[in-house]
Write a structure and sequence with these properties.
Number of helices of chain A: 14
Order of helices and strands of chain A: HHEEHEEHHEEHEHEHHEHHEEHHH
Helix content of chain A: 40-55%
Oligomer: homotetramer
Chain lengths: 380, 380, 380, 380
């Protein structure tokens, strides 16, 4: 059966139901504008996957309250993050620092030898202003910030770093990179082999993104009061600290991990799915470090996320349910880059809440008890 | 506002709409059994995120045709994977090899010194049969296969490896690990600090899982015929190979990546979301290696995925739309471990199709052209 | 000038001195048996590099005192390690746990497809006894312990793990691996591409060796008494701990390091050079983790080295000065594997002493002061 | 026995010989200026380790011939590198590109919270000129080039990058970093916890150094002519390429290595020991990538070394035999940074020669044959 021959989701479902003798009635229950989704978001569309959305919070971030929409199928996750939000908010709230790195795209060129390496390096340095112009012409919202280079035999990689305002911006960056690459190839006669050479690095765990950042670098912190540790989190600063050190530092070091944390991926996944982010960027969002430090009997907890790729326009953010989730956060649509930055901030704070709750639960030994009682469970 | 006080999704939506002056009507358009989803999959549920599902395929795997359900908001992804399915099927189909490693959980114990390290190691060796019994008692579907250990100061980590049949099995593994840990602590008087110490390693990029495997190790291969390369993929074996080497090997090595591939994460994310897998496991699914080799003018392409965590029962697999996606693949529900194994096999083959299409597109320089024309785009 | 045409070191020196108008009189000042060194250890020999050897210690290890010979050109290193020895010995001495993993060699075979992968895997399982026989025949001191496999496209890697008794054993392992590979190729008609495919992994930093071990895994621990911290080390448990956490854990995690330690490489380098080990194995010896934990006002410090490649026979261990260094430790020559094991033990304990001293110095802020005063310095 | 109480090497040897009933006569056979070595290079000195030095070459680098001094105890290594020199020189010689990154030192400060992070970042930006002045005042040969920062909880890391001219420069960098740190602490009242926080990163394998470089970044290339491949190297371009891909790329990727190469560590170790470099920097020198590409029937081979830490003044370079080795290369002593740069260049070219020879040998299957015949062996 040629799935591409049908005109719409309804026809495709009917054909699949007939051929496979299965029912797709729930897949067909949706309110999205199918023609828009089918043309912009998904080919051969047959309907939707419905993923439950819950609300964690309110979470006080830099003195303002947020309700965090989370799409998940893992029972206990929303409740867990919600508990972390409660503990954080009771302790005065989370502070966040966000640094925009930018969206990167890394084409690869073919050099004959090290002399051409030098020629290409010099060309890039000498023509940076023109490269910036090309980026701006390709999309008025796009700014080329800088570039880095690397070499593997005949392969010369250029990692262009763009500011794409409120868009996550991979498409804009790719289109601009192509026009810049065409210009470079035209002027230097050095050929572009591929518009992406994995020195971007898009959607793979990588130390390049961990160390030099991608999208946004985000830091979030909270000082958990002793009574909140005892009350809401049912643990102590010392117990929490011991588990943090054993798990996030020791276990992660021993296992060669890029995730020195408890469950970044769980929180990032739920927030990204609810708000229409590219789910493959959960990979980069899983990287990062959680830190804990005892202050008297209080506990300072902080997180660092090196590679938060988010946007509030484009991609899945325009779909009806995803847009509603962004509206719950008050950041749907474009706003001179401020909405994407806010989403990165919220991601950092939510991730912090998730870390707090899970580590407290592990410290108290209550994780399994809760899961058994509820017959379900979030893990990490 | 205390989001936890409401009785159901409808009330929560109404409250949020009133407080935030926003509309959530699409979020509220769903057919899932809300009471089931709210009790098993998502707390504080307010509705769903609707994620478009498209069909790629048919993809011939070990002589049988599959239609691959993919949930995505990234335009071009389904079309891209579909093209890879077409090229693979035209070339005679994909062969897959799957090795079940198992689900791991790694509690951490507190030893006083190296003498207690030896005591604990000996205890584990001497009591393996009893530990297996405890696992079996905790869940009749669960088998404790083996364990590994590691030490960081006073922290002694045990990585238990379980076979959970058709379940992804993190909850079953966690519950069993807790009972085993209780037994060990009781007998040795060596305390369990935390039921997870990140030597599992769950949902973080890690070399431990890359090297020793987790869930399933999957290999998939296809020999693309020259005429398919020229026709369907509009490239040549040599061009494809050059891009593969530059991107998947050179660029990934230079960037310190665990993903020596083009877009594992995109394909895994779309398949996992459609079929109700835990989206945080996209992280582990993004790890792995793509390989290409020219044979005359044909092209051998293969992929290796070290850490595929999937199941066909439990978690999100029981939700209505997700179950329908599994039914499209003919593997919904439990089947003595065979359905989960089939899903791992399909994941490997679909990932291979995704690699083929994107690398061919990059080799031909057509990626940007396609995206510009369609005003949309999948990336990596 | 053809350096290979001369008969001995003296002639080569003379020729170089004439051609380059330089003096090599110190290079020519040595007592090694030149004909032996020239035939076994170094081609085109012109003389020696003289590297100063100092003594650290005594260091009490498992109740016995050792003087540690260290070859170094970095001023302050011997003094630093010596201070760590003193502090450790004053605190009752170091305890060490050593696990022999074995010497590995990883040939790579060429398979046509995944079917041949299965064929080869089955052949290896079915013929393990015969492979062990071949290893034993190739060298009566060599035991094949086990093997692991991995696949990259057509490349099938087998990591053979050997016990080579008191030899570091790379040559024995390579020769045995060649004979085993010949046997496999003969029986299966699957060709061996290369006797080493970097799945060994020899002399490169790698997570494979970090996680699964190579040579010896070594753990060493000491409980530093409060008065020793205050007296000999001029710091406190808390100060030491803070620097350890910031440096060995935080800084190492942020920089994507395989060395969660202060100066493993310095200590390993000095001990390896003095005792005739292969200096390229310093690379593997630099991997590992230092841990610190406050116990009342005492401090528990421990180290874990996953990949200690040492021997007391073969290679550079037979050279006159190197043999004398081994004699100082009482472990020159072969002794049923016990001498190599002792050297691994001593390496772990010496490394621990080095960590203690440097971290204490950093904690006290005295590192620079000492270096400025002495006009010299060891670093890390 | 208190080894520190003796006045000189001779007394220490006599005492050890008496106590341990062992002979140290070869250790005592040296011509170094003991009082200088004992005061600058090695405490508790008892003599020297004599390490055989051989000569590889001549190796043509950018049209000039070099004889490469190599200190090693591993038989076959000098011969192997020498063969690579011959093949390279016969093919027209090696081209090298060197980029000076600089010597780094990374102190760690204690911040209270993210506000102090911002304060410290702003202070650094606003006072860069003054920081540069302090560096210059601490040593007139030292230039502070730039800095990077990173944060782990309360720990704020600054990675200062210095140009130390012909010195490897760790001591100068450490002293300057201390004075800069004192200034920062004085002005901001933010305390410096430790002068090194492993964000340097000194002597550990790390992606930070791999990606952003340390010391020198070096690229070296050669185009091996078909007749040289056939004649001197006894292999073909295709065979060489196949082994390179399987070993340096596939095997290294599968093992989570930072060394995508054949034997960087062997060559770097031998050159560093001969020329008085810090042997712990072999660790950083082992990182990097070898590349091969077939051009008709010729073979392009290149290497990339990201972290070459070398100098021609200071440390071990002033010792008699080491200085003679530098003289053989024509680069002993200071020369406005040019000598250290030349040594980095030579290191890159020699490493390339070592890769060529070993990979050719593996491709031909002759490695074991040669080792068995000679009863010795270099490995990797």
């Amino acid at each position: 059966m040629n799935i591409r021959k049908f005109e719409n989701a309804s026809q495709r479902r009917a054909a699949l139901e007939a051929e496979l003798k299965t029912s797709l009635k729930n897949t067909g229950h949706f309110s999205l504008d199918e023609s828009m989704a089918a043309s912009r978001n998904c080919e051969n569309m047959i309907g939707v996957a419905q993923i439950p959305v819950g609300i964690a919070g309110p979470l006080k971030i830099d003195a303002k309250d947020y309700y965090i929409p989370l799409a998940t199928t893992e029972g206990a996750l929303v409740a867990s993050i919600s508990r972390g939000c409660k503990a954080s908010t009771e302790s005065g709230g989370v502070s966040v620092d966000v640094e925009k790195i930018g969206t990167t795209r890394g084409p690869v060129f073919i050099i004959e030898n090290l002399k051409e390496k030098t020629i290409l390096e010099n060309f890039l340095k000498d023509n940076l202003a023109e490269l910036k112009n090309i980026a701006k012409k390709s999309d008025s919202h796009l700014v080329l910030k800088k570039f880095d280079t690397a070499v593997f035999g005949h392969n010369f990689y250029i990692r262009f770093v763009f500011d794409a305002k409120d868009a996550m911006g991979m498409n804009m960056a790719t289109i601009a990179a192509q026009e810049i690459a065409d210009f470079i190839a035209d002027k230097t006669k050095i050929k572009c082999l591929s518009i992406s050479g994995n020195y971007c690095v898009d959607k793979k765990p990588s130390w390049l993104n961990f160390i030099n950042g991608r999208g946004f670098k985000v830091w979030a912190e909270v000082l958990l009061a002793e009574k909140v540790l005892r009350g809401t989190l049912k643990t102590t600063a010392q117990k929490f600290y011991d588990v943090w050190l054993a798990k996030c530092m020791g276990g992660s070091a021993l296992s060669g991990s890029m995730g020195f944390n408890a469950q970044f991926a769980n929180t990032i996944a739920a927030l990204f799915l609810a708000t229409g982010q590219d789910p493959a960027h959960i990979v980069e969002g899983s990287m990062g470090i959680t830190n804990a430090g005892i202050k008297n009997e209080n506990l300072y907890v902080s997180v660092y996320l090196p590679s938060v790729m988010v946007g509030t326009v484009g991609g899945g953010t325009g779909l009806a349910t995803q847009k509603e989730a962004l509206s719950i956060l008050g950041i749907a649509g474009g706003n001179e880059g401020k909405n994407a930055q806010s989403l990165a901030m919220i991601a950092g704070a939510a991730v912090l809440a998730g870390e707090i709750s899970l580590l407290a639960s592990l410290a108290q030994g209550s994780l399994v008890k809760a899961h058994k009682k509820l017959g379900r469970g979030q893990n990490s």
